[in-house]
Amino acid sequence: MKLEKILDRLNSIDKNYFIKVIDNIISNEPKHIKEINKILSSADKGLKSVDNQNISNVFSLIEDEFFNYLKFEFQNTSSQLDVLIDILIRDGNCIMKQDWFSRLYEAEIKTIKAKIKKTNEEFQNEKSEISEDRKRDYRIYKACMIPN
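RE: above sequence
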């Protein structure tokens, strides 16, 4: 499906988030800034007042920068990316709303925190059935993963 058809189907909130990302990329002067300015020259209020076809044209000019933006965002959220992927996998019907997603996300974080607490208690318990070598490995892993 072409981007302009997708933009036609988006609600204004989601479309504005997408446009905001594109605006941020444009403000950093991407390599095709002259072509982008030609497309946007007819718009008084910038990218928001441009039709979906021109948004698609602008996007095609900044695809590389957009890919770098996504890559940067995923690198910054990698600690919670597993949680996000687990939730999205469960949404096979693609009907998830933002508030439902938020509740699932919070529940998943609580579950993970409970598992971390239980694991920490198990490793600190002297009567644990976990071997001393495994406890040592865990302490090394924890020291590497958790900043001081």
